[in-house]
């Protein structure tokens, strides 16, 4: 779609693109695997570990009793190529793969994805829309996963400080559709 | 519930309370009427004009083609006693009633409700939780309604500038429950 001048689009010197799309569809694991495209529904990505209109409150939602059914605003997690590279450099590793973080999208071309404010919209070429629900605060699970994959003891404890403010965002679905590897993304920060 | 020190609660010199709860259940009208309490479900307030998991994109959501089905993030609208008083004073009127604005809640005791950031949580005594989706930008409909109720020609054109940044917020439901007149509200701004 053409950019409407009355809307606040994020300007970027380069295109913001979808580097990879991934799904967490292995029972018992948060690790994702890359696909050419993923469908998104109001409840998230069908077959994905985080699919659902509702989810149980966990340690992240301290304002609710653990296990309380709440609206699922952590349907889709997004990391950026640039921030994953920064995390890797800070951990003295050659790379951090989106699969290890359980990310559903890795995007490229946006400075500081993790600082994108809650309420920002991500718009894809077929009209699919996601709502940024805020920063995905680093937790121990991917830290341990990276350590076990790389077989390097001590890597886990370096993940949390290295990933702080760089671990990407979580999103929910505003408009259903398809997201494809190579898609160009428009980001809107005006409230809607 | 007791306040967890690891969470960012909004501090207020006075309690933040629910002054009135209201529903828009008259066919063809956005005007609300006060009730002692309202149930809230994942899709909003049953019987209310804005109830639904999905809604059609309208003039506010310019990034989508008009009529596109999108997630309903405008389920519940909230105004504050203090901001309604300010709007009334700026319009030289004795009062602005929440009914005229189609508000579902009027709250009291919070400075500048309209500036509450998207992603803030409002928590009610029985555990009900709402998510702030951002400012409710003033539109012409309540302006015309106020003019016709007060039978004062010219009032409509004074509403939009007077209500800017004072017209309250829209919310969606995170945790289902009941909201009652007189409830005390806790507001959390940390991301969750």
Commentary on this structure:
2 copies of one chain form a homodimer. By secondary structure, chain A is of the alpha+beta class. Chain A has one domain: PK beta-barrel domain-like (M1 Pyruvate Kinase, Domain 3). Chain A has helices spanning 81-91, 140-150, 155-163, and strands spanning 16-23, 33-35, 37-40, 54-56, 69-71, 76-80, 105-108, 121-123, 129-135, 169-175, 177-180, 184-188. Chain A binds chain B through residues 1, 4, 6-7, 42, 53-54, 57, 60-65, 68-71, 73, 117-119, 121, 123, 127, 129, 131, 133-135, 137, 172-176, 186, 188, 191-192, and chain B through 1, 4, 6-7, 42, 53-54, 57, 60-65, 68-71, 73, 117-119, 121, 123, 127, 129, 131, 133-135, 137, 172-176, 186, 188, 191-192.
List the main descriptive attributes of the protein structure presented here:
homodimer; 192 residues; alpha+beta; M1 Pyruvate Kinase, Domain 3; 7-stranded mixed β-barrel; two-stranded antiparallel sheet; 3 helices; 12 strands; 29% strand; MoCF_Sase_C (chains A, B); Molybdenum cofactor sulfurase (chains A, B); molybdenum ion binding (chains A, B); pyridoxal phosphate binding (chains A, B)
CATH class of chain A: Mainly Beta
Q: Identify the overall geometry of chain A.
A: globular
Total number of distinct structural domains of chain A: 1
Reported for the largest beta sheet of chain A, the result is: 7 strands, mixed, barrel
Radius of gyration of chain A, taken over Cα atoms and rounded to an integer in Å: 16 Å
The CATH homology group name of chain A: PK beta-barrel domain-like
Give the end-to-end Cα distance of chain A, rounded to a whole number of Å.
Answer: 17 Å
Q: What is the subunit arrangement here? A: homodimer
* Proportion of strand residues of chain A: 25-35%
Q: What percent of the residues of chain A sit in helical stretches (DSSP H or I)?
A: 10-25%
């Amino acid at each position: 779609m053409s950019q409407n001048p009355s809307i606040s689009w994020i300007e970027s010197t380069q295109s913001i693109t979808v580097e990879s799309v991934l799904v967490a569809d292995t029972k018992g694991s948060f690790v994702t695997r890359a696909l050419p495209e993923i469908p998104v529904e109001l409840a998230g990505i069908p077959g994905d570990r985080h699919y659902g209109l509702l989810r149980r409150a966990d340690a992240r939602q301290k304002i609710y009793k653990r296990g309380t059914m709440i609206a699922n605003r952590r349907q889709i997690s997004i990391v950026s190529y640039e921030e994953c590279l920064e995390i890797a450099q800070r951990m003295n590793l050659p790379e951090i793969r989106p699969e290890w973080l359980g990310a559903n999208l890795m995007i490229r071309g946006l400075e500081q994805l993790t600082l994108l404010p809650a309420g920002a919209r991500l718009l894809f070429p077929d009209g699919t829309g996601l709502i940024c629900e805020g920063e995905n605060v680093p937790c121990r699970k991917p830290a341990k996963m990276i350590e076990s994959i790389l077989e390097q003891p001590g890597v886990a404890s370096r993940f949390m400080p290295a990933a702080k403010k760089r671990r990407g965002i979580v999103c929910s679905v505003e408009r259903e559709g398809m997201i494809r590897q190579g898609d160009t993304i428009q980001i809107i920060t005006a409230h809607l």
